[in-house]
Amino acid sequence: MPATGPTRPDPDALAELAAREGRGRLKVFLGAAPGVGKTVEMLAEARRLHAAGSDVLIGLVETHGRAETEAAIGTLSTLPLRAIAYRGQVLHEFDLDAALVRRPAILLLDELAHSNAPGSRHSKRWQDVEELRDAGIEVWTTMNVQHLESSAEAVARVTGVRVAETVPDAMLKGADAVELVDIPPAELLDRMRAGKIYPPEQAERALRGFFKEGALAALRELALRRTADRVDADVTSWMRRNAVAGPWPVGDRVLALIPGGGAAEPVLQQARRLADALHAPLLALHVERPGQQADPGPGIALAQQLGAETEVTTATDLTTAILAHARARRATHIFLGRGDPPWWRRVLGRTLISALARRATEFTLHVVPSPAAARVAAPPRHLPGWTAWLVVPLLVAAATLVCVMLDGMVPDAAFGMVYLAAVVAIAAVAGPLHAGGGAMLAFLAWNFLFLPPRYTLTVASAQDVLGAVVFGVVAALLAGTTGRLGRNVRAAAVRLAALRRLTTLSRRLNAEASVAELQMAVVEEAARIIGGPSCLLLPLDEALAMTLPGQFTRDAMLPAEPVLRAASPADAVPDDGAMAAARWALANGRAAGRGTATLPTSAWRFVPLNAVRNGETVAFGLLGLCPKDEAPDPEADRAVEALLDQAAVALERARLADTAANARARSQTEALRTALLTSLGHDLRTPLTAIRGAAETLRTAGAALPEATRADLLTTIEEEATRLARWMSAILDIVRLETGQVVPRREPVDVAQALEEAAMHIQQAHPGRRILRDLPTGLPRPRLDPALLDRVLENVMDNALKYSAPHGIVRVATRREGADVLLIVEDDGPGIPPDDLPRVFDAFFRAARTDSIAAGSGLGLSICRGLVSAMGGRIAAESPIAAGQGTRITLRFPQ
C-alpha cells in the first residue's frame, strides 16, 4: 500500500550518496563477449566530451590490432605505459603513479579484469581503479560479463571455458554508471568471421569453442540480467533518496554456509546469483568446531568480495548453530556444499545435509555439487603418521602382560576391563580411528589368550559371547567419546593459550613505562607469534612527535613517510621493495605486501594500526610481519589480529598521554608567562617610578636642593636599582632552575656555621632586628653546595623578617632527626592562610599581606625550593605555629 503520511529520504541512502561523492566516479561499459564494441563505444563517448572541453586522458586501451578501435582513439591524449622487466622480457603496463600525478578529469582504462605484471603495485587492474577513485579521479572502463566473480561458474558450465581473471561483484555494484554494449549473437559471429575481432587462425578456434551461437545467447542473457539488476538497484536507490513510496523487495534472505578449505567458491557464487535474482541480501556463515584446522579465510574473503555480510561463530553442534543463526537473521534460503563426509556418516544418515533436511523445515535448502569437493583436513593427532599406529600394538601388548600377571588371581572376564583401559589410552594419544583398530586387536588377544577354550578364536559359553559383544560396543563408544574429548581439550587448550597470551600482552603493554618500551613489546610479541622478524613503522611526523613531543604536527609535514621505530630482532630491516609496500599501506590504510593483492611479491606484509581521530579512522602506523612459513597459519593470523587491536589502543593511549602532558606543560608555561608579565608590571613600575622621580628632581632642581636632600635622592636611586638587579637575578635563577642548568658543587658543610653566617648577613642588612639562634655543635655534615645553601638561608630569613612585625623576633635552629639534618627558620608574624599554604613555594605567588608588610616578587621561596631540590633536600612550610600566628620553614637534608 502506498504511504499516505509524510515521508523522508532514507538516511542510509543519503549516507551512501555522500560517501560516493567523496570519490571519483566509475563508469563500466559491460558486454556479453569480446568484440561487441565496448572499447569503441567508450572512446566515442570520450571524444564527444573531449570536444566539449573536458580533460579526457587514455590510461590504457587494448586495440588488439583492430583498425576500428585504433581509429576510435582519434585525437585523445594517451598516457605513456610503464616498462616492467620480467623473466627476460619487457612488459608494458598502465602507469598508476603517472596517472595520479597527471590527475585528468576522466581516465579511460580498458579491461577491468586484467592481471598486472609481477612487480606492479597491485596484482589486479580493478585495484588500480580503486586507488584512482580514492584520489578523486573519474574512471571509465570495460569488462565482459564472464569476468564477474559471481558469473564465472555459470559461464564455465555454458561455454566449457573457465575464466581465470575475475572482478569482485562489489566493483559493479559500486559503479556510478553501467552501460550495456550489446549486439545480436548472429552479428557478432559475422564480425568474427570477417576478422574484425581476432585474426583468422584465432577466430577459427574461437568459433569452435567460446563463440557458439547458443553460448553467446546465454552470455547475452546473463549480461542483460546483470544490467537489469543494476537498473533496478538504481531505481530503488533513487526512490529511497527522494522518499518515493513504492513496492519494496522484502522477505527473502539468502544464507550461504562457508566450509573450511577450498570448497566455498561454488556455494557462494550460486547463493550470490539467487540473492541477485530475488533482490535479497546475502549472508555468509562459517561455524568453527573444536579441533578444526581447515582455514576458512579464503571463503570469508570471497564472501566479502561478493558483498555478503559475513559472520564466524564457534559451536560443537553444527546443525543447531546453523539453524539458530538462520532464524536470528530471518533467512529463507540456505546454501551448502555437498562435501565428502565419511562413508559411515552417509550410511547412518548423520551428514549435515540429512540433519538440516530433518530439522530445517521452514527453510529452502540448496545443496551445491562441488566439481572437486575439498575434504576438510582432519584434526592433528598427538602422534603423527606411523608412530601412532605403532602405539596400538604396544599398548595392547602391555595390557596383555598385565593380564598374564593377573592370570589365576582374577576371573577371566575381568581381563576385558584391562583391555578397555588400553583402548581408552590409545584413543587419548592417537585418536578414535586408531582406538577402533586397538579395540579389534584387544578383543582378539583377550579371546585367544584368556577366554575358554584358550588359544583358539572360538567362544564356548553364551556368557562369554555376551561379554565379547559388550566389550566391542563399549570399546567403540569409549574410543569415539575419548577422541571427541581429546579434540575438545586440545581446542580449548589452544584458545586458553591464546587468551593467556592476550592477557600477558595486555599486562605488558599496560606496564611499559615509555613509548620506546611499548613499541619494542609490540614487535617482540608479533615476532614470537609468527616465528619470524617483525617491525613497527610510524609516519615521519608521528615518529618525530614521539621523539620530540609538541614540536611536530601532521599539518606541517610532507606526505607520510614510514620510519622504522622498533624491530625484533634488531637487524630486521625491510628492504626497498618492502618499503614500497609499506608506503602504499600507510597511504591507503589497507594491508599490503606478502599474502595480499598489493605488491604480493614482497617478503614482508604490512598491516595498518588504526585509530579514530576527529571522527575518522586513520592509519597511524604499520606492523611489519615476515613469517618464515609460506603456508598460512589461521591461529597465528587470529593472534596477530588481536595483537593489532591491543597495540593500536596502547600506542594511541601513549600518544594521547603525551598530548595531554604537552597540553599541561603549555598551560603551565602560559600561566607562568602570565604571572611573569603581571609581576613585571607590578614589580618594575614601583622602583622605576622612584628612580625616574629622583632623577628628574636632581636634573631640574639639583642645584637648589640641600645637600641632605640630594643625598637622599641618590640613595633612593641606588636602593631601587639594587632592588631591580635583585629581582632580575631572581628571574634568571628561575630560568636556570627550570632548564636544569643549576649543578651543585657538593662538599661537607657545617650547617650551624652556615646558619650563623647567614644570620649575621641578614642582621647587617636589617639593623635593629632580632634573630635568635639555637645552633648546637657536633651535627653531621651533609654534602651540600655552600654558595647555594647561603642563598637559600638568606632568602628564607629575609622572607621571615619581611612578613613579621618590625619588633618581631626570628628564630633559627638546627637539629638532627633520624638520618636527616634539619635547618629551621621561624617568625612570629601573622602567618599564612591555610588556603595559601600549599602554593607558598609557587613562582610569583604572594601571600595575603597587610599594609604594614611590603610586597615581594613572589620568587624567593620558589627559588629556595628549586635550589634545595637541586641539592637533594626538601623544604616545607608550617603555619600557624603558636597562638594562631607565626610561620616555620624547615629545610631537610640527608646526612
From TrEMBL:
Keyword field: ATP-binding, Kinase, Membrane, Nucleotide-binding, Phosphoprotein, Transferase, Transmembrane, Transmembrane helix, Two-component regulatory system
Enzyme Commission designation: 2.7.13.3
Pfam families per the UniProt record, alphabetical: DUF4118, HATPase_c, HisKA, KdpD
CDD domains: HATPase, HisKA
One GO MF term: ATP binding
Membrane-traversing stretches: 386-406, 418-445, 465-486
Cellular localisation: Membrane
Principal localisation: membrane
Catalytic activity: ATP + protein L-histidine = ADP + protein N-phospho-L-histidine
Class of enzymatic activity (EC top level): transferase
Entry GO CC: cytoplasm; plasma membrane
Membrane association type: Multi-pass membrane protein
PANTHER family per UniProt: SENSOR PROTEIN KDPD
Name listed for the protein in its UniProt record: histidine kinase
Organism: Humitalea rosea
